[in-house]
Amino acid sequence: MVDKVKVDRRVIKTKKAIHQAFLALFYTKNIESITINDIADLANVNRGTVYLHYSDKYDLLDHLIAEHIQNMIGFCNPDSGARMRDELTPLFEYLKENIAFFTAMFATHKAAVFRKHLTKVISVNMKNKLDRNLGTKTEISNELSAQFMTSAFIGMIEWWVEQGMPHSSEFMAIQLEKLFEKNEKILPGVLGK
């Protein structure tokens, strides 16, 4: 049992080093110019170790994106009845704790890949919430409402990260909640109050 724990810790440590190396390279280089050797050298592992965990650099990027999006979604419980700010504050804290990842993902020429994945996951979750809370009683399509809210939400996150997180997580959560409240006539019942 002790050996398994040691192996697991080593694997976690190795993967973390690979992730950090990849993000450092991704922030400064185009993904096409990054090689597995670059990642391995910066992570201080051999290239076989990288291939042990990921089939290629695109697989590594997909894993990182999926992991962070899943973690982000985990902060939002649409059925909790909690105020939006109470759900968003820990989400903004998560963004702050993982600044290297989000800065790399929102860098101008790389934002499209991450934004596409994030938009898909959030808009599907938002539409499901709208469908549950609103049914078909509104004049505006739930799908279009979900896209509107998703774009606004991601835009705020992207701005906050690109500006170097000039406001606290709590301030951002409150401001985002207030912005959505302004549109509550359009989107009643979505804020989980």
TrEMBL record:
Keyword Ion transport (UniProt): no
Pfam families in alphabetical order: TetR_C_8, TetR_N
UniProt entry tagged with the keyword 4Fe-4S: no
DNA-binding region: 35-54
Domain called HTH tetR-type: residue spans: 12-72
Keywords per UniProt: DNA-binding
PANTHER family with a match to the protein in the record: ACREF/ENVCD OPERON REPRESSOR-RELATED (PTHR43479), HTH TETR-TYPE DOMAIN-CONTAINING PROTEIN (PTHR43479:SF23)
Protein name per the record: AcrR family transcriptional regulator
Lineage: Bacteria, Bacillati, Bacillota, Bacilli, Bacillales
